[in-house]
């Protein structure tokens, strides 16, 4: 009793397991988490170090450099980068994937503990943040006051921080909520300078009086045998108006604060702003929990917002940015693409098999296999995203191959051998199942190295390889169980219908011409090997040496998701109020652009608010704009970008501008597609080199916008005190600096504490008109023990231009020249960059390095090269035991370089670049094309075992296997057409995989039926010749 006969004796068990798998598959599909792409960013820890009052240079020297040296010693660190600004240093530490976020956070925290005692006094406690795909916001909500509500944005922020954020955090599906947009409430105590001089006061006197009186003082404890009673002298204010009644001591008397100061509840000076859909607002970023479901978080947040709208009718809640639309649209498109792939594949099977029943039998395997695949995806913790759904669509053609081979062989036994349907099912399946298993196993085998290749490649392509492996495994099981089980009930030995006869004649006529063509070529090749082989070799050399460089290389292809990012910087020393006017002009352009949906505008940064951007200066901003998807607009995203870029260039006040699509850089740690980083010690030389590099790069074709990371463009005044005069008036530089800082920037004097809310800072400072110009600075009357003295009598004032930020990378000062493209291959751009900078003279001690996309691209291609080599080795040694020969696997693998020709020309013809998905396509192609060779060689070997001579066996194999080989190739190709045609949002990222596979299969299949038999004959003749000797 054969193996097939043995398990077919248990049909009820097989069907029960089948129905169970279908039910579990449906349930799993409904429960699989949804995302756009797999989480692939490297684990990153951001450390925010605040040293109030310190300049950017002091922050760098005293805080950032010691800390980054310590952090660089941690294990598995890829990169340490820092940005120093006045009062704040932001360090980002990127780790290898193996580290894990939690372990990285612990290591960074321990490193900071070791060095904290060596850092300057006045440093605020370091804040540590985990940054990964999880910390990317899934939704941005804009909250603004409705017209007529009389609420200010300062009050809106207070409501957001004290009530709305805690309400959202009570939702289990929401991991965190971050608030942004300036307008942080504070109580202002503003005093005219002449008033201070008249009463002989300084701001320090006022701040000290506030601090001493606005507090609650413990006054002891009354103790008795029965009880303890605490005594307290209350002094804290309940409302800001009560500050007016506090007294400022003078010589022998005092004065009410309200008599000399203007006291208002306002907000801190803004260094950041947020606009939602063109309106000033407070922004809320909603983040998912670790291992959280993106769509579950979005849906939970939307439900919570509905309740908040009812709870706060005076507030307007609008969604300014969300991943929901793109994920749902993409998934809907992908399901449509899957449907199209199934229909096309079944149609091709029907046309070539010309049998309705046999086609139905093969088609049944598709849904059954998918339900089993979805169950396995759920079991292994995968999610539905563009990558895994691409694998599902790719699998259509691959998984039906198994069923086609089995169904076609069963029908052949039924028709040609005159067996009963049951016996035909048993013998047809038994005959082909090992060869079929070998073909399926080889395809799976070439995918295994991808799952363990490491780095970014593994993060992106492992889910794809896993889903394909699951689908192929399920497909094989279905083909050798369900197909033979159903075949006796579906297939009939009788005459085909008239329609089937007609299709059969057409199909056979078409196939007969193919058979005759291949047999003629084969016979010609046997006699004239060199004439037939040389063109293939020449075409292979041309493809690799000439065509491949024309195709170009990318890490990942650009994609049109309908989301545009606009990064900009306003001119130096532009007040935020003027910057807001520039932003409004940009937003007006965007709102009136066809297809506009929503936008979120962020400018500057706030310490500790990472998801909105941690290292922007107050002059830098980002606008994220959503347009309708590409199926509902005339222009593609790159045409939109070009139009917007040209419009925005007309707006005065913009210093730098980049307009690019969402996903322009595959990893968030890549600053820009092109990044020429210059490192060295002298910032003046760095800046000079950067300007020269940028000037040269303007001539590089494909680059549309350029900028560099910093300039000496921030104006500042240097106060150089006369130490003798300071000493005469009883002052020191420290006292002078402290008093000036309090007057011009404001000094924290005390707090207004509100129950269950965050304390409000009380700041003292000069009136606005007394701190807004150089003249007001020079005329400042400095309070001294000998009376007020003008600042210009105590010091000289010089103007200087300094860096607004100081950037360091891997312990060295750097400046980056950043460039953006549209769709030009990054390899072509890098070639142009190399030529442009080839004769640049770089001083000793300074270094240029190509960062950007090219660096991870080289690393990824090196990993993929290793994976391909390992796949071929595994493929070869897996075929050795199958054919019990070391020769035959070589014959089979001849198909791979033949397929490579089609893959390269396919990319050229459809204008796609060679990239990571295309490399994956090459590896997948290696496993698929050898399946045809396996079927061909298996037939030849079996024919020779039955006594047929070499030529007769080979020609018989060509005749017999032309139909199944063409059928499996064409079904695989048609299944991939929706991916190659980019029938879903985001599929541009993976379409090169399908293009490579289609091109390789088309050419590889055509050439396989000629060159594999020729190579087999050649090796057999060589073996016979060696044996005779």
UniProtKB/TrEMBL annotation:
Signal peptide: none annotated. One of its GO terms (cellular component) is plasma membrane. Pfam families: ACR_tran (PF00873). It comes from Thermodesulfatator indicus (strain DSM 15286 / JCM 11887 / CIR29812). PANTHER family: PTHR32063, SWARMING MOTILITY PROTEIN SWRC. Keywords: Membrane, Transmembrane, Transmembrane helix. This is Acriflavin resistance protein. InterPro entries: AcrB_DN_DC_subdom, Acrflvin-R. It comes from the Bacteria. One of its GO terms (molecular function) is xenobiotic transmembrane transporter activity. The chain crosses the membrane at residues 334-353, 360-380, 386-407, 432-452, 464-491, 530-548, 867-883, 890-908, 920-940, 961-981, 993-1019.
């Amino acid at each position: 009793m054969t193996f097939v006969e043995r398990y077919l004796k248990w049909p009820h068990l097989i069907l029960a397991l089948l129905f169970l798998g279908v039910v579990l598959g449906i349930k799993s599909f409904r429960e699989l988490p949804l995302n756009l792409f797999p989480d692939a960013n490297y684990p990153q820890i951001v450390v925010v170090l605040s040293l109030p009052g310190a300049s950017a240079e002091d922050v760098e020297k005293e805080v950032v450099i010691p800390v980054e040296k310590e952090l660089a010693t941690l294990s598995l660190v890829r990169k340490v980068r820092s940005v120093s600004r006045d009062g704040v240093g932001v360090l980002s530490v990127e780790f290898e994937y193996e580290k894990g976020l939690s372990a990285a956070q612990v290591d960074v925290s321990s490193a900071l503990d070791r060095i904290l005692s060596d850092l300057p006094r006045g440093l605020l406690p370091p804040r540590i943040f985990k940054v990964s795909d999880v910390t990317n916001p899934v939704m941005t909500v804009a909250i603004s006051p409705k017209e007529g509500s009389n609420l200010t944005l300062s009050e809106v922020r207070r409501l957001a921080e004290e009530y709305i954020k805690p309400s959202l955090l009570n939702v289990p599906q929401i991991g965190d909520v971050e608030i942004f947009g300036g307008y942080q409430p504070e109580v202002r105590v503003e005093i005219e300078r002449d008033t201070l001089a008249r009463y002989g006061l300084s701001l320090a006197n006022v701040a000290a009086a506030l601090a001493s009186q606005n507090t609650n003082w413990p006054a002891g404890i009354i103790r008795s045998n029965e009880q303890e009673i605490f005594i307290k002298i209350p002094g804290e204010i309940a409302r800001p108006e009560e500050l007016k009644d506090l007294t400022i001591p003078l010589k022998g008397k005092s004065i009410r604060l309200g008599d000399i100061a203007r006291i208002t509840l306002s907000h801190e000076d803004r260094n950041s702003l947020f606009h939602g859909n063109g309106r000033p607002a407070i922004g809320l970023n909603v983040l998912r929990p670790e291992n959280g479901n993106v769509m579950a978080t979005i849906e939970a947040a939307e439900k919570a917002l509905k309740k908040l709208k009812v709870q706060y009718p005076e507030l307007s809640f609008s969604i300014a940015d969300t991943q929901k639309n793109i994920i749902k649209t993409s998934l809907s498109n992908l399901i449509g693409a899957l449907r199209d792939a199934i229909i096309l594949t079944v149609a091709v099977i029907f046309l070539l098999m010309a049998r309705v029943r046999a086609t139905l039998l093969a088609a049944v395997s598709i849904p059954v296999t998918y339900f089993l695949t979805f169950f396995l995806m759920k079991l292994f913790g995968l999610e539905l995203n563009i990558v895994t759904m691409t694998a599902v669509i790719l699998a259509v053609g691959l998984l039906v191959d198994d069923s086609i081979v089995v169904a076609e062989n069963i029908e052949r036994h039924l028709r040609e051998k005159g067996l009963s349907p049951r016996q035909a099912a048993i013998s047809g399946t038994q005959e082909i199942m090992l060869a079929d298993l070998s073909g399926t196993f080889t395809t799976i085998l070439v995918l295994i190295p991808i799952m363990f290749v490491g780095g970014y490649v593994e993060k992106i392509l492992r889910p794809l390889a896993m889903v394909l492996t699951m689908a192929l495994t399920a497909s094989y099981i279905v083909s050798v169980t369900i197909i033979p089980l159903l075949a006796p009930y579906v297939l009939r030995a009788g005459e085909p219908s008239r329609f089937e006869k007609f299709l059969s004649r057409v199909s056979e006529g078409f196939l007969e011409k193919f058979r005759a063509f291949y047999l003629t070529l084969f016979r010609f090749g046997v006699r004239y090997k060199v004439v037939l082989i040389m063109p293939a070799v020449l075409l292979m050399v041309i493809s690799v040496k000439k065509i491949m460089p024309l195709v170009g290389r990318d890490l990942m292809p650009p994609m049109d998701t309908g989301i545009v990012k606009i990064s900009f910087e306003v001119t130096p020393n532009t007040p935020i109020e003027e910057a807001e006017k520039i932003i409004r002009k940009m937003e007006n352009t965007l709102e009136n652009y066809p297809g506009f949906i929503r936008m979120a505008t962020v400018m500057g940064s706030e310490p500790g608010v990472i998801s909105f951007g941690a290292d922007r200066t107050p002059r830098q901003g980002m606008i994220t704009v959503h347009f309708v998807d590409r199926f509902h607009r005339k222009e593609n995203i790159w045409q939109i970008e070009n139009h917007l870029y040209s419009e925005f260039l007309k707006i005065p006040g913009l210093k730098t501008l980049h307009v690019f699509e969402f996903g322009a850089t595959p990893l968030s740690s890549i600053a820009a597609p092109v990044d020429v980083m210059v490192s060295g010690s002298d910032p003046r030389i760095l800046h000079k080199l950067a300007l020269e590099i940028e000037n040269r790069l303007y001539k590089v074709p494909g680059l549309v916008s350029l900028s560099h990371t910093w300039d000496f463009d921030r104006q500042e005044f240097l106060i150089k005190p006369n130490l003798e005069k300071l000493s005469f008036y009883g002052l020191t530089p420290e006292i002078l600096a402290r008093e000036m800082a309090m007057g011009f920037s404001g000094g924290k004097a005390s707090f207004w504490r509100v129950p269950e809310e965050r304390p409000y800072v009380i700041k003292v400072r000069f009136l606005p008109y007394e701190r807004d110009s150089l003249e007001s600075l020079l005329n400042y009357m400095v309070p001294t023990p000998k009376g007020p003295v003008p600042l210009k009598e105590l010091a000289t004032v010089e103007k200087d231009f300094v860096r607004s930020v100081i950037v360091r990378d891997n312990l060295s000062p750097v400046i980056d020249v950043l460039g953006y493209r549209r769709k030009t291959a990054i390899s072509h751009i890098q070639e142009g960059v190399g030529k442009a900078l080839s004769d640049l003279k770089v001083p000793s001690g300074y270094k240029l390095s190509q960062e950007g996309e090219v660096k991870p691209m080289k690393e990824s291609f090196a990993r993929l090269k290793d994976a391909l080599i390992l796949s071929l080795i595994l493929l070869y040694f897996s075929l050795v035991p199958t054919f019990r020969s070391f020769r035959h696997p070589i014959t089979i693998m001849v198909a791979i370089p033949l397929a490579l020709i089609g893959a390269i020309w396919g990319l050229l013809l459809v204008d796609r670049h060679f990239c990571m998905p295309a490399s994956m396509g090459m590896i997948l192609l290696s496993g698929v094309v050898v399946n045809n060779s396996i079927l061909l060689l298996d037939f030849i070997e079996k024919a020779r075992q039955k006594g047929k001579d070499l030529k007769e066996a080979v020609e018989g194999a060509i005749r017999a296997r032309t139909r199944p080989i063409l059928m499996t190739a064409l079904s695989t190709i048609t299944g991939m057409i929706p991916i190659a045609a980019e029938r879903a949002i985001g599929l541009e990222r993976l379409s090169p995989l399908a293009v490579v596979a289609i091109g390789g299969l088309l050419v590889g299949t055509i050439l396989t039926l000629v060159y594999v038999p020729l190579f087999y004959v050649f090796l057999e003749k060589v073996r016979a010749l060696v044996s005779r000797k």
